[in-house]
């Protein structure tokens, strides 16, 4: 009788319902290992639509996202070590513009891609060792939040809203260990599509919740805000169980 494969080498098990916890954990541990190896401890996260194109009605935001990412990366590279790395969702549109801007400045950038049936494919400007493919949205959002020292949300749709409000909810409920400055880029767009003041008026959020973000409309102004408010401290330490596992490996 042939020797059966080890469970963690068995594709049939790993792809099964019973193997789901292993797959979920892998989407946490594999990026953690890669970030540690690359020395990535802090990011500036760019959210925005995959559908925005330079020739479309929101086309100005492509160039402005690229320029902001270039400014952030250029500044980061001037510090002692690459202290802030541009991070995007890894796809086209605004995400590609962010990764491309970092590349233009000669820096690295992260791409947290997720497999979708239509437009989401990794863009070519992501630093290869910092490109990741996710199946689970919630694990991808964990990595957006885990390393973020500032967040810029450009115009987007459901996905951008989901990612943005995840961070705002974490900040509102004090689930974050540090403050993450949130900038909504394109005040005309954001004020049209979300009536934040109405939420206060209806009593569903508090007036002070409006202080969790601010609007920006120009790359240089957004850069200066990031530069003055982003925390450059390294990422929080890994969970205790992970640190212990590295000291006491199983044999």
How are the secondary structure elements laid out?
Elements: H1 11-14, H2 20-38, E1 43-47, H3 60-78, E2 85-88, H4 94-104, E3 109-114, E4 131-134, H5 137-147, E5 148-153, H6 158-172, E6 182-185, H7 187-193, H8 196-201, E7 214-216, H9 219-229, H10 240-247
Parallel strand pairs: 1-2, 1-5, 2-3, 3-4, 5-6, 6-7
The percent range for strand residues is 5-15%
Percent helix, as a range, is 40-55%
Structural class: alpha/beta
Q: Specify Rg, calculated over alpha carbons.
A: 19 Å
The largest sheet is: 7 strands, parallel
Task: Give the class-level CATH name of the domain at 59-230.
Answer: Alpha Beta
CATH topology of the domain at 59-230: Rossmann fold
Q: Report the order of strands and helices.
A: HHEHEHEEHEHEHHEHH
Look at the structure and give the mean pLDDT. Answer: 91
Give me the side-by-side strand order of the main sheet: 4-3-2-1-5-6-7
Shape: globular
Terminal-residue CA separation = 27 Å
The poorly predicted ranges are none
Task: Give the helix tally.
Answer: 10
CATH architecture of the domain at 59-230: 3-Layer(aba) Sandwich
Number of strands: 7
